[in-house]
Amino acid sequence: VESSVLGERVTILDNVIIERGCLIGDDVTVGPNVRVPAFTRIARRRMRKMGSPESMHDDSDDDEEESVWADAERTESDPMDGLDQFDRQAVGAEGVGYVWDNAVADAGSDADSDYSDDDTDQRLRHLHTLGSTMADAAYPESDGDGSADEDDDDADELAHLSPQEEFERELYLTIKRACDDNLSASKASLELKSLRMSYNKEQDEMRVGVVQEVLRIIDIDALADSASRTLRRWGPVIAEYIADGRDQLDLVDIVERHCAEEHGLDGVRAKLFVRLVYLMYQLDIVEDVAVVAWHNRALKKADVDQELVRALEPF
């Protein structure tokens, strides 16, 4: 496997070569004796264009009537029922999966920008969207009214971003999109996992970035309600980046730095810090012993805002 992204529960059988840039979705099986060409995308579910005979057929709920994503599992009404539908040439004799055609993916995303409710292969969908967005930015089309110059400026700005700055930008956009589209915690988590794999980030780096962006969502003018609402919604996502006591200490460090350094928090820094730590304790993201340990350690550190440390003492 060369520089490719593999989802969860992927099975690679004997004598399989996966060339660079491939995206293999969750639950896919490849092999045996197969070479997957560079930049191939294989998913467990079949993709089809809107308006195809299959997509017009409805044997499920009405809200799934126009879904672009088809279930790979055969049903009684499937005209291919009883036949081996998997792309054997691509996935092998024992393989399970379908190749996603770029043209079909583009048509599906244009027809319906809101993906179906299926969580499967969220990584592939995010990476396809990211790649398409970057391509559009790099090759803007003129509409004749001068907007191409603005697009050129945007493309130049993107071209000058460092890898870290590009990651931070995509992280911000991912969380913003999750808020705008009111995605569930599980779907937002899948989007963030795909982003992590795209940029090859460590767990610690993701924890810092995700927590910082989530904390910036809080409306200071409605601090108590907004902090509670934000943490209760994003708490399950943050918890995925907390594995042990060390991670809990690091989490409190991140919250302290946000409250101490973020602009616009004058007069509410200590109140916000205590509120956030208490909410994370209520949501079982951090334990009381971790908070006490952080407090005792912070008393001896010069680079920690001692006003915030003192505010945490009653905890």
Explain this structure.
This protein has 315 residues and is an alpha/beta fold. 50% of the residues lie in helices and 7% in strands. It has 13 helices and 10 strands. It has helices at residues 53-56, 88-91, 102-111, 122-138, 147-159, 163-180, 185-199, 203-215, 223-239, 245-261, 269-282, 288-298, 306-311; strands at residues 5-6, 11-12, 16-18, 23-24, 29-30, 34-36, 41-43, 46-47, 69-70, 98-99. A 4-stranded mixed β-sheet has the order 1-4-7-10, with no helix packed on it. Helix 6 runs antiparallel to helix 7, helix 8 packs antiparallel against helix 9 (223-239) and helix 10 packs across helix 12 (288-298). The model is unreliable at 49-84, 103-121 and 128-142 (pLDDT under 50).
